[in-house]
Design brief:
It is built from 20 helices and 26 strands. It has four domains: about 160 residues, ANL, N-terminal domain (Rossmann fold), CATH 3.40.50.12780; about 100 residues, GMP Synthetase, Chain A, domain 3 (2-Layer Sandwich); about 90 residues, Non-ribosomal Peptide Synthetase Peptidyl Carrier Protein, Chain A (Orthogonal Bundle); about 325 residues, 3-Layer(aba) Sandwich (Rossmann fold), CATH 3.40.50. The protein is of the alpha/beta class. Helix 14 runs parallel beside helix 15.
């Protein structure tokens, strides 16, 4: 479900060995996505399974050959031991190889299975197996199960499942088996005399859309009722079905007809009903203008996104309003996953699924987007909201004696930069104590994070943006250094806000309470949105660029705190290199050559090598120890006398720039050499993931100060990351 409707997440898989399709037939597009993934994960294997619950879960298994460009779904699968599969015609006669028919399962897996308290249905679906070998009857053979599924066996004995048999009133919706007659009975019951007939059919979905349940009803005295009267019956019925049926069984649309089509034998002609045209959504210019007036900007934008996700005929001709419920408008749990992905593509970020599930009306969901940061109001994000609640203790801090030594609070001390800053801070004699706020993690031993300097370091477990509940030892803090940052490449503003913004705001409150100087790590890319004291009319960051937009909000917010209170706040900005180089396109610079050698060496230690596919652009680097030492020196200087009330800025320019494509080409050349065969045979993982692993292992001696990277996903969409 997740990979099918939020397929962009597949590119995040970096160590996937096996994937299994089951429950219902996977779409061709999903198989193609896994085929693309196998190019970076050559050991990936994809399997297909099939088997109804009545036959004890799994009857066949097949492996999709991802190297076969002609492979399509359904994936032919081999019958598992202790099972038998027969293809029969309408008279239960076995059909030849290659001829399609109903799939019937026999064998020990069927055994003595039965429907609870339904002997009639059990007898119908589980007859004696005339094809079972007599010598296997003692092993549980002897009965078989009519699946109602349609398929064929090939000459190799492989089974291909192609759908349900024609005319069957049992369908599969999002993995659930649904009896259409059951829904029809509920419609008649809930119609309370106003509905005299109902026929429910499953309409095939387009592309990756699942099938759509459509109900056609005949209202009592339908020809004598006006359209408004029939519409009122349908609206009342829709409300009742929402509480009477499971969500996956609720028809996406209820359409009135005057009479039900019948076959020549007087039975309901489901095919004819299914072929009836579905109503189209038609809005006059006046109706559209009224809708635009009644919705906020966020609601209108969200309504447009809904329209791209919901099935074309699911709204029944009704325009969206703030009260329109996503599920009652034709949505379902699977489409909600697809909606989340569509919101993220359009707005750069999206709330979690459980949040969307609890706000299914258009108006509520739009409000959720605004509050979660998916559609942020930048003015609200940077507005100060707490100055009147915080005592101005910081005003007296500069008179405090320094004889006791400096106490420094640091976040992000377990990251690649932070863990190098701490030893530099501890080396200063005037630094008495370093309080490290560290995120609890499985297997992390707080007592041995900083060997050799434990006498100066105290580690406190906390999950930013929350600060320790018992903050008595924080009251005496002289300097706060906020290095922690969520640098996720793909996430938008809302996802990165907790650590990059909310934590910065919480630390600003702490600084105002204690009088501590505040230092925080920012981004040189924020300079693109600088405006001094006036930001009106200037471009605002794109919320899709979560890192830069979150750092912009933090800077703007803290600049306002400094301006209004005089609190000493310093932003440390890693930036691009000031050195302009124009090396030949086919030759490495000195730093590029150093990094290439480092990649080959570090890959052996990590057990994986980087795959540069789909990644291009430039990044800028500086020696991480130099950056760490400079930040530590600035933070340990403590309070600086100044009458100026403004945010201070310190830049850390890179010492060199690196071209990804040039470096990738050189790595590819070197991997062909015999001495690098060991590295060539390692599993390839996306280069961004490889860099993260190298950082965590302490194998990268370089700090990435800036980047302009272009990443292309498997569907050709480009994501540009600037830092």
């Amino acid at each position: 479900m997740w990979f099918r409707f939020a397929r962009s997440n597949l590119h995040r898989c970096t160590a996937l060995n096996s994937a299994w399709f089951g429950g219902e037939r996977a779409p061709q597009s999903l198989l193609d996505s896994f085929r693309d993934l196998s190019k970076t994960l050559p050991n990936l294997r994809v399997f297909n399974t099939y088997g109804p619950t009545e036959a004890t879960i799994s009857t066949v298994k097949g492996e999709a050959d991802l190297r076969d460009p002609d492979l399509t779904v359904p994936v032919p699968s081999r019958i598992l031991p202790n099972y038998a599969v027969y293809i029969i015609d309408d008279e239960s006669r076995a059909l030849p190889v290659g001829v399609p028919g109903e799939i019937v399962i026999g064998g020990a897996g069927v055994g003595k299975n039965e429907y609870l308290n339904r002997p009639d249905l059990t007898a119908k679906q589980f007859p004696a197996d005339p094809f079972a070998p007599h010598d296997k009857e003692a092993s549980g053979w002897g009965r078989m199960y009519y699946t109602g599924d349609y398929g064929r066996l090939d000459a190799r004995g492989l089974l291909a499942i192609e759908g349900r048999i024609a005319g069957d009133a049992q369908v599969k919706v999002r993995g659930f088996r649904v009896e259409l007659g059951e829904i029809e009975g509920v419609i008649i019951r809930e119609g309370a005399g106003a509905v005299v007939a109902a026929v429910v059919t499953l309409h095939a979905g387009e592309g990756d859309h699942d099938g759509l349940l459509i109900a056609h009803i005949v209202a009592e005295d339908s020809k004598g009722k006006s359209e408004a009267q029939v519409a009122e019956i349908i609206e009342r019925l829709g409300t009742r079905l929402a509480v009477s049926l499971p969500q996956y069984m609720i028809p996406a649309n209820i359409i009135p007809i005057h009479e039900v089509p019948l076959t020549a034998h007087g039975k309901v002609d489901r095919k004819a009903v299914q072929a009836l045209p579905l109503p189209e959504i038609k809005m006059s210019v006046t109706e559209r203008e009224e809708q635009q007036k009644s919705l906020t900007v966020t609601e209108r934008r969200l309504a447009d996104i809904w329209a791209t996700v919901l099935p074309a005929h699911s709204l029944g001709g009704k325009p969206l309003t703030v009260q329109t419920d996503f599920f009652l408008a034709g949505g379902n749990s699977l489409l909600l996953v697809k909606l989340q992905d569509a919101i993220k593509r359009a707005l750069g970020d999206a709330p979690r699924l459980n949040k969307l599930m609890s706000a299914t009306e258009l108006g509520n969901m739009a409000a959720l987007l605004e509050s979660s940061g998916a559609a942020p109001d930048w003015d609200k994000e940077i507005a100060l909201d707490f100055l009147d609640q915080v005592p101005s203790a910081w005003q007296a801090r500069d008179s405090k004696s320094s004889t006791a030594g400096l106490r420094i609070l640091i976040t992000g001390a377990t990251g690649s930069l932070g863990k190098r800053i701490v030893p530099h801070l501890a080396a200063f004699k005037h630094v008495a104590q370093i309080v490290v706020l560290a995120r609890p993690a499985e297997g992390r031993d707080f007592t041995h994070l900083f060997p050799g300097i434990e006498d100066k370091v105290r580690v406190v477990a906390t999950e930013l943006p929350s600060l320790p509940v018992d903050d008595t030892e924080l009251i005496e803090i002289d300097v706060i250094l906020h290095v922690a940052a969520d640098r996720n490449f793909w996430d938008g503003y809302g996802a990165l806000k907790p650590v990059n913004v909310s934590a910065a705001k919480a630390l600003a409150k702490l600084a105002l309470r204690t009088g501590a100087a505040l230092h925080f790590l920012s981004s040189g890319a924020v300079a693109n949105y600088e405006a001094g004291s006036d930001i009106n009319g200037l471009p605002r960051p794109d919320p899709a660029d979560g890192y830069v937009s979150s750092k912009w909000v933090a800077e703007r917010y803290l600049a306002d705190v400094a301006r209004q209170t005089g609190l000493q706040i310093t932003a440390h900005r890693p930036t691009k290199t000031a050195i302009v180089e124009h090396p030949p396109a086919d030759k490495l610079t000195e730093i590029e050559g150093t990094l290439v050698r480092s990649i080959l060496f570090s890959s052996r230690s990590l057990g994986v090598r980087p795959d540069f596919t789909h990644v291009g652009g430039t990044f800028h680097v500086a020696p991480v120890e130099d950056v760490a030492a400079a930040i530590a020196a600035a933070a340990s200087a403590g309070h600086q006398e100044s009458e100026e009330k403004s945010l201070r800025m310190v830049n850390y320019p890179a010492t060199a720039s690196v071209r990804v494509e040039v470096m990738a080409a050189r790595v590819s050349e070197l991997l062909k050499l015999p001495e690098n065969e060991v590295v060539q045979n390692l599993t390839a993982v996306p280069v961004l993931y490889w860099v993260g692993q190298a950082k965590r292992a302490g194998l990268l001696e370089w700090f990435f100060t800036s980047q302009e990277l272009v990443v292309t996903d498997e569907e050709g969409r480009r994501v540009i990351s600037r830092r």
